[in-house]
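From the pipeline queue, job 12 of 40. The input is one protein chain; the requested action is below.

Action: predict structure.
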Amino acid sequence: MSHILFLTGKLAEPSLRRLLVDLAAQAGFEYSVGVMPITVAALATTPWIARHFRPSAGVDRIILPGLCQGDIAELRHEWGDYLIEKGPNDLRDLPDYFGKPNQGKSAYGRYDIEILAEINHAPRLSRDEIVALATKMRADGADVIDLGCDPDGSWAGVADAVKALKDIGLRVSLDSLDPVEAAHAAKAGAELILSVNRSNRDACVDWGCEVVAIPDVPANCQGLAETMAFLQHHGVRFRVDPVLEPIAFGFAPSLGRYLETRNAHPAIEMMMGVGNLTELTDADSAGINVVLLGFCQELGIRSVLTTEVINWAQSSVRELDLARRLVYHACKEHVLPKRLEPRLVLLRDPKLREHGEETLRELAGHVADRNFRIFAERGKLHVINSEMWLQGTDPFELFAELAKRAEIDPSHAFYLGYEFAKALTALTLGKNYVQDQALCWGFLTLPEKGRHEKKTR
């Protein structure tokens, strides 16, 4: 049985020891706790740890607090060839840290669904604007940049726009029913035209590129079979999109059309335009995108078209890029798409951690300085230092009480207000709050430099 040394600071020692009693028995290891001569372990750097602590014999593995800064190689240089690693940022995550399943994890990240990202109203934009938007979309995970046209006349600059994107190595498609626009785009290098039906399918024979076949009347798929037969007869490569409809305008039947099409044509390439749901539903787009990608993965729909017009769908390309990896892994490994992709959990955190009343009371009894420690749990804000432990739900009332008991300069007042705002947001939404750390917003999280780090710059 391996022996693990957990390093910590003075304040976290009691909580760590309580947690390890059960964790060691469950995970099957022996342990010891090394208490460094520092109050808050997160402030320790690896050079400082190397100078102030030395592990004893018989240790197989050393786990440092996740927030400590510095290169682990410095510790190996001072201590010898120990197995040293940084654990989670919060000691309450140690059970998850030791319980993470490794089965199939090395394969996570693969996908087989292609993302087409549409630049809406492309004819209204300059060449530079189109290139800038396309570059961002590619960075977010788009495989193909789709130029969305307007219905009021042919776009004279379509070929120039396609060439501009091709020149920087992008794959391009065109969203237009206009055969003139489509012909110019295809000649300039567009590899896919969205879309063809009875109205323009005769012209597509000469384009020399793949097309997307759609119904003449989406509600009953009228005309789709005839267009597919026409394209097959003339040797035109195509994929099929039965058209996803918005909620209240045939959403459920439209899903049925995808199922019917797949059942009738098991090997045919299919596409789904997801914007009719993400753009036209009062809901954040991430969850909708995951569900639609799950449907596509199970049904063998290997391309999706998205837009990023309305504000709540502004990150749809990135969401789809993460979602396609999640659903691919879930379907291939036959596991639930759960606890695999935390970057898609944006509004609330996957798991709430609490110190609990006993730990906070213990902390309040051991803090020996006047620095304020702020916590947010069980519906309350908590402020602790050597002289007080205040609790409440209103940050303004808490600050007023603090100001009565302590002298607070303007910069410190600003800092406390900033932390109170984060803590109250965490309580409101059901998120974890850790002082001097950014709230977690999944892949939208912006790193936050802690107060102590800022002072050293």
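Job complete. The first strand starts at residue 3 and ends at 8.
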